[in-house]
UniProtKB/TrEMBL annotation:
<dbReference type="Pfam" id="PF03819">
    <property type="entry name" value="MazG"/>
</dbReference>
<feature type="domain" description="NTP pyrophosphohydrolase MazG-like">
    <location>
        <begin position="175"/>
        <end position="231"/>
    </location>
</feature>
<dbReference type="InterPro" id="IPR004518">
    <property type="entry name" value="MazG-like_dom"/>
</dbReference>
<feature type="domain" description="NTP pyrophosphohydrolase MazG-like">
    <location>
        <begin position="36"/>
        <end position="109"/>
    </location>
</feature>
<keyword id="KW-0378">Hydrolase</keyword>
<dbReference type="InterPro" id="IPR048015">
    <property type="entry name" value="NTP-PPase_MazG-like_N"/>
</dbReference>
<dbReference type="GO" id="GO:0047429">
    <property type="term" value="F:nucleoside triphosphate diphosphatase activity"/>
</dbReference>
<dbReference type="InterPro" id="IPR048011">
    <property type="entry name" value="NTP-PPase_MazG-like_C"/>
</dbReference>
<dbReference type="InterPro" id="IPR011551">
    <property type="entry name" value="NTP_PyrPHydrolase_MazG"/>
</dbReference>
<protein>
    <submittedName>
        <fullName>Nucleoside triphosphate pyrophosphohydrolase</fullName>
        <ecNumber>3.6.1.9</ecNumber>
    </submittedName>
</protein>
């Protein structure tokens, strides 16, 4: 029966779960998959989530199906390992998120009025999450902000939590002043450990500026990365037309070509 399911192109989620079970079978499974644990798989889970985000950002809808499948496989992988260890099953995972969504949307699944703005829904959502944290004995303001988030994203979430209890600068002017202050402290730092600390402080305040400007710092940095790749590729192409590679050039020449690439983009 399992072989028939594994080779059924319409097998859907039961097929994927059976494939995962077989991969982890201690007698007949894949040696690599058998050796993995939660910690070794977690980096792949994060990577797959980023690849989903990348496909969406590029509007690569043909790729998105595959990337979502890769991410789903990560959930199935973790659930299989959890079931083997006696922690929980995949159905427990699905039921837990279903229960959470129903509880957090009483205006859709309960008797609460649906006549509210998106902003009010965000406030209600935060109130429900605060109650959930209290039920888990997460009593401090910053409790429950996931450690495994990208650092810039986590910084914004921590700052949002603090801001909800009034710990926040009133405007962007104070944040920018703080950036100047932190940059000065970084410039004055002399030893590597101190420089690393001051650099972290500077990044943290820049994340706060992004929050005040309602900019997603991860998204902004991804866009800056893409722009850098695009413009440096233009520099490489221009050098190739001259029969050269970047290693054969110098900073002055490449900087001039970089400026030309910027002008071409803005034309």
């Amino acid at each position: 029966m399992s072989d028939a399911l594994i080779h059924d192109p319409e097998g859907g989620l039961p097929r994927l779960r059976e494939i995962m079970r077989r991969l982890r079978d201690p007698e007949t499974g894949c040696p690599w998959d058998i050796e993995q644990d939660f910690a070794s798989i977690a980096p792949y889970t994060i990577e797959e989530a980023y690849e989903v985000a990348d496909a969406i950002e590029r509007e690569a809808w043909g790729e998105l199906k595959g990337e979502l499948g890769d991410l789903l496989f990560q959930s199935v992988y973790h659930a299989q390992m959890a079931e083997e260890a006696g922690h929980f099953s995949f159905d427990d995972v699905a039921n837990a998120i279903s229960d959470k969504m129903v509880a957090r949307h009483p205006h859709v699944f309960g008797d609460e009025s649906n006549d509210k703005s998106a902003e009010q829904q965000v406030r209600d959502w935060e109130a429900v999450k605060a109650a959930e944290r209290a039920a888990k004995a997460e009593t401090r303001v910053l409790d429950g902000v996931a450690v495994g988030l990208p650092a810039l994203t986590r910084a914004v979430k921590l700052q949002n939590r603090a801001a909800r209890v009034g710990f926040d600068w009133p405007s962007t002017d104070e944040v920018i002043d703080k950036i100047v202050e932190e940059a000065g402290e970084l410039r004055a730092a002399t030893d590597p450990a101190h420089r690393a600390e001051e650099f972290g402080d500077l990044l943290f305040v820049i994340a706060n500026l992004a929050r005040h400007l309602e900019i997603d710092p991860e998204e902004a940095l991804r866009a800056a990365n893409a722009k850098f790749i695009r413009r440096f590729s233009a520099v490489e192409d221009a050098l190739a037309e001259r029969g050269k590679r970047p290693a054969d050039s110098d900073l002055a020449e490449m900087d001039a070509l970089w400026d030309a690439a910027k002008r071409a983009e803005r034309a």
